[in-house]
Amino acid sequence: MAGAFFRKTEPESFSGGSRPSRPKIGVALGAGAARGWSHIGALQELVAMGVSPDVVVGSSIGAVVGGCFAAGRLDSLESFARSLTKRRVFGLLDVSFNGGGLIGGDRLRGRLEESIGAMRIEDLPIRYAGVATELGSGHEIWLKRGPLVEAMRASYALPGLFEPVRVAGRWLFDGAIVNPVPVSVARALGADRVIALNIAIEGSGRGTAIQDLPEPDEAPIEPPAAADDPRAGVIDGLRRGAALLRRQWTSEGPGAPGLASVMVNAFNITQDRIMRSRLAGDPPDVLVSLKVGKIGLFEFHRADELIALGREAVRKARDEIAEHVELTPAKG
């Protein structure tokens, strides 16, 4: 199937002169944590309708899906995503207490290397770049060569959660901080027409200034009382501890949102503001909003729904895409 993703684009020569090659097509994949599985369906639908990208770029999860696409490994990534359950997701998170994040990332790196191996970006059939941010300076780093897995890891290293990745002597982390939907990168790599895939979260982009908060309608939730006999509550305490850890990641249950949810939601608010500013200055030819509703930031186990949502979003945007890109669906 991977062979169908790529098409030779060099101009053909004729006795009467050279016919101009078709415009080069770029696809920019936005950030969005687990919701990025929708990129898989979006890319599959683009290919099905005859879009043959010459350039693929991405930030964060967009860099992962885009890299697998460029490497001809999108099918493998889809199989992996669809196989995930809640238990398997937690099994991939190797907690770290020594680095710059709560998760070391070695298990995820291992899974990526199993699928992609030692493939280098400069050897890919189409042009690719993953976007990362340099720690300290805030430089926007375009990873256009070197190990593909390393570029993916640097681009999705969410601050505070994943450890930053050292590349060429620089500590790098999530590219969504500086360029959430990297349209500018796609153009710089030679794309004449750019299709941007932006993950649209329900309720995002509606932030405004609230000058006075109303009184709350309900009383605050009190924390559970401690057991009277600490010796009798060892097992119960362990269970509560496990439940607390799970809630910190998933925000399940009453009370304040969990640690991961707070961090990523704050990150998403900032990312949304930056994204709107960047796209206003360098708009794509086509902006496809992948509407993922209320699917959670870490609900990686909901790949079936997300892939379907990605396909549907591109399907609905077909007419707009056709205005800018020649569609040549494969026969049969």
Backbone shape: globular
Count of individual beta strands? 12
**SS summary, helix count:** 11
Strand content: 15-25%
Order of helices and strands: EEEHEHHHEHEEHEEEHEHHEHH
Low-pLDDT stretches? 1-17
What kind of sheet is the major sheet? 8 strands, mixed
Write a structural description.
The protein has 332 residues and is of the alpha/beta class. Helices cover 37% and strands 16% of the residues. Strands 3, 4, 6, 7, 9, 10, 11 and 12 form an eight-stranded mixed β-sheet that branches. Strands 1-2 form a two-stranded antiparallel sheet. A hairpin with a 2-residue loop joins strand 1 (13-14) and strand 2. The longest helix has 23 residues, at 259-281. 40% of the residues are buried.
Q: What can be said about this structure in brief?
A:
By secondary structure, the protein is of the alpha/beta class.
Supply the key terms.
11 helices; eight-stranded mixed sheet; disordered N terminus; two-stranded antiparallel ribbon; 16% strand; globular; alpha/beta; 332 residues
Topology:
Elements: E1 13-14, E2 17-18, E3 25-29, H1 38-48, E4 55-59, H2 61-70, H3 74-83, H4 86-91, E5 101-103, H5 106-116, E6 127-134, E7 140-143, H6 148-155, E8 160-162, E9 165-167, E10 170-174, H7 183-188, E11 193-200, H8 234-250, H9 259-281, E12 286-291, H10 303-316, H11 318-324
Parallel strand pairs: 3-4, 3-11, 4-6, 5-8, 11-12
Antiparallel strand pairs: 1-2, 6-7, 6-10, 9-10
Helix pairs in contact: 1-10, 2-3, 2-6, 5-6
